[in-house]
Description:
By secondary structure, the protein is mostly helical. The protein has one domain (about 5-115): Orthogonal Bundle (Multidrug-efflux Transporter Regulator, Chain: A, Domain 2).
Amino acid sequence: xxxxxxxxxxxxxxxxxxxxxxxxxxxxxxxxxxxxxxxxxxxxxxxxxxxxxxxxxxxxxxxxxxxxxxxxxxxxxxxxxxxxxxxxxxxxxxxxxxxxxxxxxxxxxxxxxxxxxx
Length: 118
């Protein structure tokens, strides 16, 4: 079991973020008798998933909804599938936008290189 500081360091996030995720009911750490938070391997795996969702621009409200559905149990599998499928569609759209921007920048850079070296 890891402390909040150890967990934050392991995941590359702040202890404040972990407290925020707890407040938003995205993660529920174990509590010691004195109230200290403890995180186990299942928390770490879950938090890695949450971090990826956040990094790919999933809104915190959607992550909270996914977490609530997961906590309800297997009967919410279809709802969770739909949430993730929608997020994947969003990521695909982001990739297309980034690809178009990359191509436009590549043309612009090539134009500057030609101009500078001529």
